[in-house]
Design brief:
It is a single chain. The chain contains 16 helices and 26 strands. By secondary structure, it is α+β, with helices and mostly antiparallel strands. Strands 5, 6, 7, 8, 9, 10, 11, 12, 13, 14 and 15 form an 11-stranded antiparallel sheet that branches. It has a 4-stranded antiparallel sheet with strand order 1-2-3-4. A 3-stranded antiparallel sheet has the order 24-25-26. Strand 10 and strand 11 form a beta hairpin. The longest helix is centred in the C-terminal third of the chain and has 20 residues. It starts with 5 loop residues before the first helix and ends in a 6-residue tail after the last helix.
């Protein structure tokens, strides 16, 4: 009898690269992923959570695509223009050379919303030497690859029926079924431009150069607002840029990733839609934005978060970028990335009970108040309701931070983050002068919860904290215990737990798996990069700065020259899971900030006091 999942792994298509070498473009409204061969193979409209009209990433045949090739030239060399999400390309072959750019155009906005989407994908190419044949093919397939389109003339451009897509180009155009082909032979000094708009009006072709430079200038201006110049400043700035690209301009929500169903195991079934906002990213994102000089984006995100708090009770662990829940379903017409099926859209985890959500939101609110002092009475009233919920419900089990699709259990991380919720609620009540809050009762519940975790969450025989009450196995979420102030980083129980996690869950010196228990799904997954960077932070708080620095350098180096991190990695380095992953970049920033303060204990303590990790 074949092993579970082996029939799917057998479907992996020959020649499909296992590594995730795509480049991401963003206009803070939607995203596009560009493959090494120059094809735009993931593009969603009307926004990043919408229909993938280009989905070759998930099916080499059925998924739509937008290719740009130069005859006789191999795949171009690609790089980001510094401090931007403008992708620069260089082609070179026996017949000549060319240079160009790919970008989703943006322009400057107002102070409270500094980046606005032009809602057009720009592809430009200039022949710099010789004679070259340039060919672009645009094959949109709406319904995530389910339907072909018919092209028709629309003024000076072309419209794909059933989609908002309109293409304008200065190349000669022909239509072959559902594919629009633009092709020409160009000499040195000649150029080609393609503008693919996904909303009206589409800018004029003559404005393509200005669009490119304005986009680059807008990104550079945003990056320049950041004032961080400490440890790993380049990686931190680029991670902040990636996070801004994953933020939705209309609401301030943060995409966990711009993709769905990129597998945690090549050929396996662990394929999920991450085009949603997980509240567990809240505190890290807020701190990163404020610490790096992007306070207005921090304010926008908090407003989005509090809007969700006002509409939801109890809280869902994740919401769509418009602030609404979603349903999960499978798309059987797509074969999946490298044969990894099923492809899913929507995420069933939105209906789980995850008590850690409350802790992350209160953590973010305290950070906001400590950094700005701007939390209002009505906003606190919303948050206070959720603190009271946890004071009443903390003794219940939940589904846990890893969203295991099985029975609820008493997960230690959930208990710790519930403690965070109560602890931050107590502190906020004091900071805001709320004399009516039941602080004494919250304090009793917080302290009882703390004592219970130390009693039932720590296994004396194993010598470490464990994943859930009654377990003997640890999980990597325990690394956050010192980061949220539940215990000091050098507490002997934490030191022992960190060592056990490294012994039991490491697949490489710098790569940590989430857990090794049976989670009810066939197959395995890779090392979780969020946890790997959190190991860095935990080691810093334990006073082991040299080890922390070495692991950070290894992890940061795995991203390559484009500086993009996935959700997971296999031991040999293969990228796994959705890409690029916001929480990996958030954890990188947190680890770098901790390392930056590691040489100065006074500075580290001062930063901790400003942050929600401070404990009263």
């Amino acid at each position: 009898m074949p092993a579970p999942g082996s029939h799917r792994r057998a479907r992996v298509a020959a020649g499909v690269p296992a590594d995730r070498r795509v480049r991401v473009l963003s206009d803070t409204h939607t995203t596009a992923l560009v493959a090494p061969d120059g094809a735009v193979e993931w593009f969603c409209v009307p926004d990043a959570a919408g229909d993938a009209v280009a989905a070759r990433l998930l099916d080499r045949d059925a998924g739509g695509r937008f290719t740009l090739t130069v005859a006789g030239c191999p795949a171009p060399r690609r790089r980001y223009r510094p401090d931007t999400l403008v992708l620069e390309n260089d082609w070179a072959g026996p017949s000549g050379a060319a240079a160009g750019e790919d970008l989703l155009a943006v322009r400057p906005g107002a102070a409270d919303r500094p980046i606005h989407a032009e809602r057009v994908l720009v592809r430009r190419l200039r022949v710099t030497d010789g004679l070259l044949r340039v060919r672009a093919e645009l094959t949109p397939r709406p319904g995530y690859g389910a339907r072909p389109v018919r092209w028709r003339r629309a003024g000076a451009g072309w419209h794909a029926d059933g989609t908002p897509l309109r293409l304008y180009t200065d190349l000669p155009v022909s239509v072959e079924g559902g594919t629009l082909v633009a092709e020409a032979e160009l000499r040195a000094g000649q150029d080609a431009t393609l503008l693919l708009g996904y909303a009206d009006p589409v800018p004029a072709l003559a404005d393509a150069g200005e669009l490119t430079e304005r986009t680059a200038g807008t990104w550079r201006a945003w990056s320049a607002r950041g004032d961080y110049a400490g440890f790993a400043a380049g990686a931190v700035r680029h991670s902040a840029l990636v996070l801004r690209g994953l933020s939705y301009d209309e609401t301030g929500a943060l995409l966990a990733a711009p993709t769905t169903s990129l597998p945690e195991e090549i050929g396996g079934v662990r394929n999920w839609d991450y085009r949603f906002t997980w509240h567990r990213d809240a505190a890290l994102l807020l701190l990163a934005l404020f610490r790096l000089g992007h306070a207005e984006e921090g304010r926008r995100y908090l407003r989005f978060l509090l809007g969700v708090c006002a509409r939801q009770h109890p809280l869902a662990p994740l919401v769509g970028i418009h602030g609404h829940p979603t349903e999960e379903r499978e798309l059987p017409h797509l074969s999946g990335y490298a044969g990894s099926a099923p492809v899913r859209i929507g995420n069933e985890a939105a209906h789980q009970i995850q008590f850690d959500t409350y802790g992350h939101i209160l953590d973010a609110a305290l950070a906001y108040q400590l950094l700005t002092g701007e939390l209002t009475g009505p906003q606190w009233a919303l948050l206070r309701r959720h603190v009271e919920t946890m004071a009443e419900r903390w003794r219940e089990p939940d589904h846990g931070v890893w969203e295991i699709r099985g029975p609820c259990r008493h997960y230690v991380n959930s208990k710790v983050m519930t403690w965070v919720c109560l602890d931050r609620g107590i502190r906020l009540a004091g900071l805001l002068g709320d004399r009516t809050a039941p602080v004494d009762r919250w304090r009793r519940e917080r302290d009882a919860l703390h004592a219970e975790v130390l009693d039932r969450g720590y296994d004396e025989r194993a010598g470490s904290f464990v994943m859930a009450y009654g377990d003997t196995e640890p999980d990597a979420s325990l690394l956050r215990m010192p980061l949220v102030g539940f215990l000091p980083g050098d507490d002997p129980r934490m030191v022992a737990t960190v060592e056990r996690i490294r012994a039991d869950l490491a697949v490489a010196p710098d790569l940590i798996r989430r857990y090794r228990v049976d989670d009810g799904l066939p197959g395995t997954e890779g090392a979780f990069l969020l946890c790997s960077f959190e190991l860095v932070s935990a080691l810093v708080l334990a006073g082991r700065h040299g080890e922390a620095r070495e692991i950070f350098d290894r992890l940061a180096g795995r991203a390559g020259p484009l500086g993009l991190h996935p959700e997971e990695r296999a031991p040999e380095g293969t990228a796994l899971g959705n890409f690029p992953q916001a929480f990996t970049h958030l954890a990188l920033i947190e680890a770098a900030l901790n390392l930056d303060s590691a040489g100065d204990r006074d500075a580290l303590h001062a930063w901790a006091e400003r942050s929600p990790a401070a404990r009263t």
